[in-house]
């Protein structure tokens, strides 16, 4: 045992940096009520100098890098090539795809914008290389900063003006190959989210029409989510409420009574939506149909009718009225009286439209009404799109096929907001005691602290602690021995509040160490392996003052910790 044991390689982040040490003392109430972003700021992960803008501090950056490494590793396994495009993108490309007139684009001048996404640039880049079918498919990605001029940035890392995004793109010779690339990327997404061990679901982002399963939203399932998802208890498909359409039974009885909601067009014509009483109207469904230009800013019903009334008077009663009725409305349905004077000749009617949202217990249209739909909440963390030729045609991106003919690429694009993902994991897993990270992305996985009982320990015993840290380091466990000034309780609290999955205490029980678990347990593979060696390693579990503690001989602690981390 030489002095080299005391020289630890410091490959990993330390919590003892000027940015995070000591942690602010937060009351239980504060810990519970602070937003997740405020926790990340108070604990020294990030700093937000302005709304929607994030500075990454050492602890936050280490965590972000772990997310990136996880994603990068899975993409590399799938053979997706990494690139990194400039953040400056030329307007000429955006004009071609008709996307330059987007208020959320950060335009620097007439020529350049800060890239918000890269369909234009990457397509233009790939077309100069993959000019033959022999060079396809191409699957590329980048993990870079993106910019969006959010008028109302919110949620800290969830919706920022600048964010880190992993955006991937696929280029194929035909639809069939493009779908293979699309499926492959979805499999990669599945393994990324599975690695994170946060409950997730893949939701249909298309309306479910034929050939529509070509775009998925990936959501963390959490009551804290903003999106409402519906999952069928029979066919198990999930969809966002914005996209799921109700099951319409053939020859179903029409609703007894209709409800009405009024709206204006941008031209101040009146729109009357009729739908079964008790159902919820979703105007977005009509917007998607593209049959009228709705003014969605004025929703107050009295205001809508007042505006229409005065405009109608001005034009001598010649303003149009557009009636839109839901599929659930039929000849027998009792309709409400018209709220304004009207001329039949100025009235247009669209019938059998789908206007209402699904509700808890509704029947599922995907399995022909066999299953019932149940609601849950989700946070969107990824999206996969099959694009077809949407971008290759306007950008004139072609290759020469087998027969020597020019063809447009069949494309797909695939996004994960990496900084948003970090914020979402923090949001979903935090509890009243602070943050909790999954072991795979935690900035540190283990904190080792010496208790006052160890103060007078011999040099040899201290060497055994150093060796434990060294062994963990060798096993690629991210570990820190906290030798700061503060007391045992403060050090443990700090480690737990920061969200580090395991705390190891050396002291009272020496040569056994105590292990406390802060992380979320989501498996038992590691623990089962430990159980089988229990006697040999001196491993036992006891509750001490309401806290579950694991004890193990220090010489076997590294192996036990490695196994425990598998379940966290
Ligand atoms: Zn179903």
UniProtKB/TrEMBL annotation:
Domain Cytochrome c: residue ranges: 220-302
Family stated for the protein in its record: Belongs to the class-II aminoacyl-tRNA synthetase family.
Recorded superkingdom: Eukaryota
Record InterPro entries: aa-tRNA-synt_IIb, aa-tRNA-synth_II, aa-tRNA-synth_II/BPL/LPL, Anticodon-bd, Anticodon-bd_dom_sf, Cyt_c-like_dom, Pro-tRNA-ligase_IIa, Pro-tRNA_synthetase
Keywords: Aminoacyl-tRNA synthetase, ATP-binding, Heme, Iron, Ligase, Metal-binding, Nucleotide-binding, Protein biosynthesis
Gene3D superfamilies (alphabetical): Anticodon-binding domain, Bira Bifunctional Protein, Domain 2
Residue ranges of domain Aminoacyl-transfer RNA synthetases class-II family profile in the record: 60-438
UniProt key word Protein biosynthesis: yes
Record organism: Eeniella nana (Yeast)
Catalyzed reaction equations: tRNA(Pro) + L-proline + ATP = L-prolyl-tRNA(Pro) + AMP + diphosphate
Name assigned to this protein: proline--tRNA ligase
Short name of one Pfam family: tRNA-synt_2b
Cellular component terms per the entry's GO annotation: mitochondrion
Record has RNA-binding as a keyword: no
The EC number(s) this enzyme carries: 6.1.1.15
PROSITE patterns: AA_TRNA_LIGASE_II, CYTC
MF (Gene Ontology): ATP binding; electron transfer activity; heme binding; metal ion binding; proline-tRNA ligase activity
Any GO BP annotation: prolyl-tRNA aminoacylation
């Amino acid at each position: 045992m030489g002095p080299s044991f005391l020289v630890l390689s410091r490959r990993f982040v330390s919590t003892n940096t000027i940015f995070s040490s000591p942690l602010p003392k937060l009351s239980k109430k504060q810990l519970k009520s602070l937003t997740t972003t405020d926790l990340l700021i108070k604990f020294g992960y990030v700093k937000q100098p302005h709304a929607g803008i994030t500075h990454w501090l050492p602890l936050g950056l280490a965590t972000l890098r772990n997310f990136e490494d996880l994603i990068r590793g899975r993409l590399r396994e799938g053979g997706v090539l990494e690139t990194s495009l400039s953040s400056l993108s030329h307007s000429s490309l955006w004009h071609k795809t008709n996307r330059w007139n987007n208020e959320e684009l950060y335009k620097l001048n007439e020529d350049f914008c800060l890239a918000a996404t890269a369909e234009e640039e990457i397509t233009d880049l790939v077309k100069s290389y993959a000019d033959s079918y022999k060079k396809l498919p191409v699957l590329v990605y980048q993990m870079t900063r993106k910019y969006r001029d959010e008028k109302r940035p919110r949620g800290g890392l969830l919706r920022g003006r600048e964010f880190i995004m992993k955006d991937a793109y696929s280029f194929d010779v035909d639809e069939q190959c493009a779908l293979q690339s699309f499926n492959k990327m979805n499999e990669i997404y599945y393994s990324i989210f599975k690695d994170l061990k946060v409950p997730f679901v893949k939701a249909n982002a298309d309306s479910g029409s034929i050939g529509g399963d070509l775009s998925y939203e990936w959501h963390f399932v959490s009551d804290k989510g903003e999106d409402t998802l519906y999952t069928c208890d029979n066919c198990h498909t999930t969809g966002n409420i914005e996209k799921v359409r109700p099951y319409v039974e053939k020859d179903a009885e029409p609703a007894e009574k209709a409800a009405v909601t009024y709206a204006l067009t941008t031209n101040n014509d009146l729109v009357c939506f009729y739908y079964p009483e008790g159902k919820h109207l979703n105007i977005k469904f009509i917007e998607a149909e593209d049959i009228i230009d709705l003014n969605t800013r004025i929703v107050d019903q009295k205001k809508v009718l007042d505006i229409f009334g005065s405009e109608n008077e001005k034009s001598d009663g010649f303003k149009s009225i557009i009636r839109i009725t839901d599929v659930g409305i039929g000849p027998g349905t009792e309709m409400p009286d018209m709220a304004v004077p009207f001329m039949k000749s100025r009235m247009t009617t669209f019938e059998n439209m789908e206007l209402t949202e699904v509700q808890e217990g509704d029947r599922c249209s995907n399995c022909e009404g066999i299953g019932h739909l149940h609601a849950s909440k989700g946070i969107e963390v990824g999206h996969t799109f099959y694009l077809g030729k949407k971008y290759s045609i306007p950008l004139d991106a072609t290759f020469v096929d087998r027969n020597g003919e020019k063809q447009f690429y069949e494309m797909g694009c695939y996004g994960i907001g990496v900084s948003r993902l970090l914020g979402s994991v923090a949001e979903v897993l935090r509890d009243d005691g602070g943050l909790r990270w999954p072991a795979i992305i935690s900035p540190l996985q283990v904190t080792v602290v010496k208790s006052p009982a160890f103060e007078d320990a011999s040099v040899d015993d201290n060497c055994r602690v150093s060796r434990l840290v060294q062994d963990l380091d060798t096993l690629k466990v991210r570990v820190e021995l906290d030798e700061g000034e503060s007391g045992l309780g403060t050090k443990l609290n700090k480690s737990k509040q920061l969200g580090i999955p395991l705390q190891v205490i050396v002291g009272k029980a020496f040569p056994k160490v105590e292990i406390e678990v802060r992380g979320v347990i989501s498996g038992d593979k590691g623990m089962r392996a430990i159980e089988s060696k229990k006697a040999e390693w001196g491993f036992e579990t006891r509750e001490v003052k309401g806290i579950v503690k694991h004890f193990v001989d220090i010489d076997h602690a590294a192996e036990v910790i490695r196994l425990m981390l598998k379940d966290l």
